[in-house]
Amino acid sequence: MKTPWHLWVIGVVTLLWNAVGAFDYVMTQTGNADYMAQFTPEQVAYFAGFPTWVNSSWAIAVWFAVAGSFLLLLRHRVAAPVLGLSLIAMIVTATHNFVMGDVQMQDVVGQGAIYFTIVLFAIALLLWVYSLKMRSNGVLR
pTM of whole model > 0.70? Predict the structure, then answer.
């Protein structure tokens, strides 16, 4: 089956989008001074205080999203489950950030964190659904 034009557009755009998330993850995890300078001391302490399981779920969310977009471009059928796992890891991370944490993200970062997280979820969910559709249509092999 010929690759539909929209797969290339969605694959490239989401790969770039997810690469930004990967950059944020790496800069935050390594404590890059220039990058972390954009945050208040309270925000830096908040991110540094994540338990290991939250950092792990965040890593899975980020790196599986990058891999899923790349696999989509390769037209590989495993893109759908990889993107699904990324979405699940996002849910786990957000549950900590907005519900379970001693300090919640919106209290440290502001209400914009809630809206941005909704956008992240919407993009991840739509990408996962799209990959499922492409797999069921036989575009992903």
Answer: yes
